[in-house]
Amino acid sequence: MIYPYEVNHRASLTRIFKRRMHELLIDKIDHSTPLDCGTIRPIFVVGCGHSGTTLVATQLFQNPQVLPIARETHIFHPLRSLSRTKCAVSEWIFISQVLGVSAFVEKTPKHIHSIGKILSLIPSATIVFVHRDPLETIASLSKRFDDLEFCIERYNIDNWAGLEATRKFENVVSVPFREFKKEPEPFIQDILQILGEEKSSDQDEEVTNYYARVK
């Protein structure tokens, strides 16, 4: 005897399987087609965890011509289908156009390993690679993970990926966190000049923590 919930469960699994196969097929067909961002310039902040990516993204968020994506989306994770990634990024582009801004900024540190995927999908994107002193980064990571060997390995792997990206792609902007923390203005100006924007005069009055607002 087969109970009704078993039939529904099997039907659900079948639908999930068909949907996933459809996504994989779309990925194969549409893999080489980049997104048209129009006048919107996408900015992705990446780097090893605890390297200062949040502070850099927060500073970029302050510009009124920037749409802040104030959460780590992991949208370019290797296990996420390209069709879903395109759908999400297309929404950010659409919202930016509706709001009349020039760019959007998204920060997911682990996207340091997806720079090639980002630029193949969005050739006009700017990648902001944030890197921090190894001792400071590993010490900060250790407080969270309590595994020194893992933290050293993660620092080496992540920063090597960023270093390789700076050599391979012209769209990667290298931001040393220690220098940024002392004087963020020159780095912010360099990034915004890529967009044809300048820092607004009222940004120094109060820094809005968009991450806290979203939480």
List the helices and strands and how they pair.
Elements: H1 4-30, E1 41-47, H2 53-61, E2 66-69, H3 82-99, E3 103-107, H4 115-121, E4 126-131, H5 134-145, H6 148-168, E5 172-176, H7 177-182, H8 184-194, H9 210-214
Parallel strand pairs: 1-3, 1-4, 2-3, 4-5
Helix pairs in contact: 5-6
Overview of the molecule:
By secondary structure, the chain is of the alpha/beta class. 54% of the residues lie in helices and 13% in strands. It contains nine helices and five strands; from the N terminus they run αβαβαβαβααβααα. The chain has a five-stranded parallel beta sheet, sandwiched between helices. α3 links the parallel β2 and β3. The longest helix has 27 residues, at 4-30. It starts with a helix and ends with a helix.
Tell me what portion of residues adopts beta-strand conformation. 5-15%
Structural class: alpha/beta
C-alpha termini separation: 48 Å
Got a strand count?
Answer: 5
Determine Rg (CA atoms, Å): 20 Å
Average per-residue pLDDT, rounded, comes to 86
Weakly predicted, low-confidence segments: 1-7
**Helicity, in percent?**
40-55%
**Series of secondary-structure elements, N-terminal to C-terminal:** HEHEHEHEHHEHHH
Spatial strand sequence of the major β-sheet: 2-3-1-4-5
Per the principal axes of the C-alpha atoms, what is the gross shape? globular
